[in-house]
Amino acid sequence: MRVKAKRDLLSLGACLLLYAIIQLLIEVDVIGQFWVLNIVLIGINIILGVSLNLINGFTGQFSIGHAGFMAVGAYVGAVMTVKLHLPFIVAILAGAAGAGILGFAIGLPTLRLSGDYLAIATLGLGEIIRITILNIPYVGGASGLMGIPRLTNFTWVFFATVFTVFFIKNFINSSHGRACISVRENEIAAEAMGVDTTKYKVMAFTIGAAFAGVAGALFAHYFYIVHPASFTFMKSFDLLTIVVLGGLGSITGSITAAILLTFVSAALAGYPEMRMVIYSLMLIGLMLFRPQGLFGNKEISLKFFNRLKGGSPRDAA
Amino acid sequence: MDSSSFLMQFAQQLINGVSLGSIYALIALGYTMVYGTIKLINFAHGDVYMVGAYIGFFATTVLGLGFLPALLLAMVGAGILGMFIERAAYRPLRNAPKIAVLITAIGVSLFLEYGSMLLVTPQPRTFPAVLSSTPIHIGGLIINSQQVLILGVSLFLMVVLTYVVNYTKLGKAMRAVSFDTDTARLMGIDVDKVISYTFAVGSALAAAAGVLVGVYYNSIDPLMGIMPGLKAFVAAVLGGIGVIPGAMLGGVLMGVIEALVSGFISSTFRDAAAFGILIIILLFKPAGLLGKNIREKV
Amino acid sequence: MSKKWLSLISMVLAIGMVAVLAVGCGGPAKTDSTEIKIGGDFEITGGVANFGKSTVNGIQLAFKEVNAKGGILGKKIVLVLADNKSEPSEAANAITKLITQDKVVTVLGPVASSNVLAASQIAIDNKIPLLTATATASKVTVGDDGKVKDYIFRACFIDPFQGEVMANFAAKSLKVKTAAIYVDNASDYSKGLAQVFEEKFIKNGGQIVAREAFLAKDTDFKSALTKMKASNPDVIFIPAYYQEVGLIVKQARELGMNTPMIGTDGWDSPKVVEIAGAAALNNTFFSNHYSPEDKDPHVTSFVEAYKKEYGQVPDALAALGYDAALMLIDAIKRANSAEPAKIKDALAQTKNLQVSTGILTLDASHNPVKSAVVIELKDGKQTFKEKINP
């Protein structure tokens, strides 16, 4: 136990170091505005990818409506600061709460479905959320909610991302998380072993939705405006792509895929007409090349590097 | 609104709904066939529909063909495209997790959309009037002759498909592959060939829908497949995906729901209501209206 | 537990380093002294890619013409395009790239008001002028505090003007009492116009008897039209773009509705006639910047040049894109400099500039003052109905 705590502290220290380096580079303007923006986007995408991975990868529930929860978080968060003039941290928490509560309310009935039927139900729910927002004049409808202050910065995103990753990692390693994984591996067997499968499915769904809400609130406070066009089912597909490309059930995979895809998207911005063609071909190519995702359901680790270097795997460790 | 005019309006909305629904059904038929055989949500189906519409468009405008030859050309073209997509993008993933194939399908869908945007520009094209369109008045109700045609074609195709799947050798092979791919292979069925044919037929159906819809609405663009594709998929699930009459039923039901919601509640919530009803139906019949609910055995 | 988390961090670090390298190498583009770089933040992919494409076509035509005449200030003017996927956050992303990576001196675009609003703050922060050809929401150039945004300009009508023109036209020229509004629920352009129309029409003593909505890219409108028919409006106001308008008019006539239909500049495209058919379009009217009957050589030469270049008749967005480019070229010439601050000052003083859609002057709020015309479609031909001065 003590070793584990020590490792966690070590990782935290490494995070702080990474933060300090990037923040320094931003301060001295080595990392320009454009890349700062994309680093912020990477952070937001990591939160979304990892939280969706909890639902899709670890609990095995095929959800493709994640953009809807992000939208709820974005709008609730924006309403907090724009209309109610509350501090940013309240906006983030409210975004998380809003999306989490909705996730719970939606998850409870729909998670009885499975496989492709659940997929289409969540897809439909995502669209319902978006259409509902389009019809609420209080939040601007089709014009979007404007005048949102830019409160999100690299610091906020970085620590929100670190928090999300640690939270979900620890959740998965807890008994609750193990129960979720058992649902993925074999629902009937899990049930037979006394796991309350519905409870854990809904729990994973709610936590995933709440973190999508955090990402939404951060997103809203970076781009001055939230608009329903940002939360179409194409956005849900993008997030699903992060999860699958990284590897279902691999947090490090989601992180890598989020970084990779955001970078590719940024790098292709200079070729506007070819952008989506290249992107789609790359997507097909990567999936053909690594159908199980970049990392499968493995986490990347030092062991992994050792093996790459030809070192002997220390499987007993 | 007095009761007779209410009834008239209700009847007109039903007509509107059925005619819209028959379009969803037409697209859903191909969707459900592919799903029925290999359990793949082929998100690129809506885009094959778009490609079909463009082939039909160029066949009528550039080659100057009539309606029927253009329709056939589009179906053949899309059928080949479908086989090619299956060969290049899906077959290598036959043993991969289903979700990986789904992502590939999304990739193919994006590629078709933006590839054709490069080729034919994003601006909409207008179909020449290759079919006559005359309004038919029945009492106070109005229906367009092309709407009747679309409904007729989708019913006809539904019957043909049901026949093919249930009574032909190919259909038997399809069902065998769907039931148990490995055993089917052991029984001497060329699984790859069967799946390839399934894609060809499914894509040809999509192209037929594309041309008919292109002629009916008279306007096509590279992103025209996204929403109809999604809704047709929803319709297929609603009817019970993999079940051919289910696609027809689901499609028509979707159309009618949309029409009635627009007509009597509010058009702003049309799509939300359509998805909402889908979810409610799924909660009570998790495998769709005509789907068989297979209990998982331990 | 293994050391995986530590290594995860090191991996992120490694990728971070790659990012830094990328910034270092691929960073600020070289400045070529023989070129003036203008950014274009447009909807090249995504839902409204067709509008983005038209606008870009218009701009590129104008740039090509001026470059053929030797450019401005002895330099060639080039458009550096970036795609915003028809989405606000991507619009912010694209403009940041244009300004900080490509070092453009002015940005043209985006098409949709919401995308412009997301991009505009970044233009303001970096003190780079942003000129949108097509964003009609009032808030684009004027902030919430009522102050005019220094660096933001536009080349098109604003919602309040066009909405009022058509409300007055309906009430006074068509002399109708009841109206139905059919709005594109996903478009801020459409919703903005619908709101103004409703206010002004009621102010003129009219009554709104039905409000229905569709979503962009819809193709079937018969249900909502059937419902509208039952409320029997004297006129239907459809503030939308040509593709949907063509289908709506066609389907309304098929349902036996002979009600006059009115709209706005989004209707201006030959596609409306191709989709709906000439006969269906009788008894429809829309506001626009110019009338094609207007034998003004500027209008006709633009249409001819556009047809020659792209093989199609320009729509309203192409014309506005062309105009925005002309405004910018004019401003750079008058500023006699390609410095952003000077271009901004010159843009604000745009006066009596001959553009393809008329003679244009920018007012204190950075909105163009030009007269509108109402056009009637008769057997598929646009004919001049009346002229409204601002």
Account of the 3D structure:
The complex is a heterotrimer of chains A (317), B (298) and C (390). Chain A has 317 residues and is mainly alpha-helical. Helices cover 72% and strands 0% of the residues of chain A. Chain A is built from 13 helices and no strands. Mean pLDDT of chain A is 89; it is low at 311-317. With 298 residues, chain B is mainly alpha-helical. Chain B has a single domain (13-284), classed as Orthogonal Bundle (ABC transporter involved in vitamin B12 uptake, BtuC), CATH 1.10.3470. Helix content of chain B is 73%, strand content 4%. Chain B contains eleven helices and four strands. Chain B has helices spanning 3-38, 45-61, 67-90, 98-120, 145-167, 169-179, 181-186, 191-217, 226-239, 244-265, 270-284, and strands spanning 125-126, 135-138, 141-144, 219-220. In chain B, the strands form two sheets. A two-stranded antiparallel sheet of chain B has the order 1-4. A two-stranded antiparallel sheet of chain B has the order 2-3. In chain B, α1 packs antiparallel against α8 (191-217), α2 (45-61) crosses α8 (191-217) and α9 (226-239) crosses α10 (244-265). The longest helix of chain B is centred in the first third of the chain and has 36 residues, at 3-38. Chain C starts with a helix and ends with a strand. In chain C, α2 (49-68) crosses α11, α5 (159-173) packs across α6 and α11 packs across α12. Chain C is α/β, with parallel strands linked by helices and 390 residues long. Chain C contains twelve helices and 15 strands. The chains are: A mainly alpha (317), B mainly alpha (298), C alpha/beta (390).
